[in-house]
């Protein structure tokens, strides 16, 4: 569902004051109101569910291979299913510095370096990998679609393993194609321009679109509802000298 909003009366009053401020003795001048924005209410087209996997281990290569296994499992769960997809958002590795750990715990770093690493020291050098994926489907699938996404994003780790953890975040509605509404916004602006001119003094007017070459503005309102925006400005041009003299 889409709705458009515009305060025509306020804009009309503003333009009237601007137009009346021009002096007939001036050869040529123009007056522009501050930009206003036409906005359209649209619904998100995608619902996404963030999946985070954390794996600990002493061998980074082994951790990398394990993450690849999880990735392949996800691929099988999503393959050949139109309207269902996932992609990797990030993959980060942390390698805690055991010497910094000792400083914070009051242990002597220099003695440890001179005497060599003990088994306890090596235990503190584990890698921690955190990978995040975004699981997605069309928002019109609603609660059932979200339930299916949750099923696809669970039971990916080894059971009863303390070194592997998975978690699903809060679902998010995503609006992916704001540019699809550019022509609708331009049509609305054109209609508003013609309507506003009916309430303005006689004269020449021009329509300016200061951000026409920029991306459509998007604002998340609530839930699956977004606003798309496009600013514009109406400029009043006073009559030319020959018309004033007549």
Give the topology.
Layout: E1 4-5, H1 8-20, E2 30-32, E3 36-43, E4 46-57, H2 60-78, E5 84-94, H3 98-105, H4 109-115, H5 119-123, E6 127-138, H6 142-152, E7 164-168, E8 172-174, H7 182-197, E9 204-208, E10 217-222, E11 225-237, H8 241-245
Antiparallel strand pairs: 1-3, 2-11, 3-11, 4-6, 4-7, 4-8, 5-6, 9-11, 10-11
Mean pLDDT: 75
Secondary-structure element order, N to C: EHEEEHEHHHEHEEHEEEH
Task: Work out the radius of gyration.
Answer: 30 Å
CATH topology of the largest domain: Alpha-Beta Plaits
Q: Using the 3D structure, state the CATH architecture of the largest domain.
A: 2-Layer Sandwich
**What's the helix count?**
8
Strand fraction equals 25-35%
- CATH class of the largest domain equals Alpha Beta
Largest sheet: 6 strands, antiparallel
Which features characterize this protein?
single chain; Alpha-Beta Plaits; 246 residues; six-stranded antiparallel β-sheet; disordered N terminus; five-stranded antiparallel β-sheet; 34% helix; alpha+beta; Translation Initiation Factor IF3
Describe what you observe in this structure.
This protein is α+β, with helices and mostly antiparallel strands and 246 residues long. The protein folds into two domains: 4-44 and 177-245, Translation Initiation Factor IF3, CATH 3.30.110; 46-174, Alpha-Beta Plaits (2-Layer Sandwich). Helices cover 34% and strands 33% of the residues. It is built from eight helices and eleven strands. It has helices at residues 8-20, 60-78, 98-105, 109-115, 119-123, 142-152, 182-197, 241-245; strands at 4-5, 30-32, 36-43, 46-57, 84-94, 127-138, 164-168, 172-174, 204-208, 217-222, 225-237. Strands 1, 2, 3, 9, 10 and 11 form a six-stranded antiparallel sheet that branches. Strands 4, 5, 6, 7 and 8 form a five-stranded antiparallel sheet that branches. A hairpin with a 2-residue loop joins β10 (217-222) and β11. The longest helix is centred in the first third of the chain and has 19 residues, at 60-78. Residues 1-30 and 98-123 have low confidence and may be disordered.
């Amino acid at each position: 569902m889409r709705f458009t909003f515009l305060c025509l009366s306020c804009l009309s009053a503003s333009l009237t004051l601007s137009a009346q401020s021009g002096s007939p003795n001036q050869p040529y001048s123009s007056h522009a109101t501050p930009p206003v924005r036409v906005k359209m209410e649209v619904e998100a087209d995608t619902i996404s569910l963030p999946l985070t996997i954390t794996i600990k281990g002493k061998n980074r290569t082994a951790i990398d291979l394990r993450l690849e296994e999880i990735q392949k499992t996800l691929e099988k769960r999503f393959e050949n299913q139109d309207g269902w997809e996932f992609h990797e958002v990030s993959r980060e590795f942390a390698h805690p510095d055991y010497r910094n750990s000792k400083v914070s715990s009051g242990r002597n770093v220099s003695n440890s370096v001179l005497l060599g690493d003990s088994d306890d020291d090596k235990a503190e050098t584990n890698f921690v990998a955190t990978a995040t994926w975004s699981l997605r489907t069309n928002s019109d699938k609603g609660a059932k679609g979200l339930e299916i996404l949750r099923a696809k994003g669970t039971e990916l780790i080894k059971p009863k393993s303390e070194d592997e953890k998975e978690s699903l975040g809060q679902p998010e509605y995503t609006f992916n194609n704001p540019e699809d509404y550019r022509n609708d916004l331009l049509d609305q602006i054109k209609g508003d321009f013609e309507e506003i001119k009916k309430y303005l003094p006689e004269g020449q007017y021009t329509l300016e679109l200061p951000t026409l070459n920029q991306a459509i503005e998007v604002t998340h309102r609530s839930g699956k509802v977004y606003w798309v925006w496009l600013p514009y400005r109406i400029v009043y041009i006073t009559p030319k000298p020959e018309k004033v003299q007549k």
